[in-house]
Specification:
Length: about 100
């Protein structure tokens, strides 16, 4: 296993196969849940042993919401309204044509 360890001993990346630039070889015991729970800095290398970082704090940066912004929502509502208006106008034009004796 290869580990990328920062200056504070925090494990920031790892690989089981291949290599990562700046990584070091690790041949000691790996915690059973290491791969499942791995997050950068969640584990650290202490005295050549992988241990959980007791000071780990979940990052507070929230990923951007992929939903529409307020402006996008307004534009979508306006677009829907325009579409409804166009359908209403077409329906009225069809009815007027029928009243005048035109084709449907």
């Amino acid at each position: 296993m290869k580990l990328v360890v920062d200056g504070n001993g925090m494990i920031t990346a790892y690989c089981m196969v291949g290599d990562i630039p700046g990584s070091v070889e690790y041949d000691n015991i790996v915690p059973d849940d290491f791969e499942i729970n791995f997050k950068p800095s969640f584990y650290m290398l202490q005295d050549e042993v992988i241990v959980e970082n007791s000071d780990y704090v979940e990052p507070t940066d929230t990923p951007p919401d992929d939903g529409p912004t307020n402006v996008q929502q307004v534009v979508m509502q306006m677009s829907a309204t325009v579409t409804q208006m166009q359908q209403l106008i077409m329906s009225q034009e069809r009815e007027i044509a029928e009243l005048k004796g035109g084709t449907k």
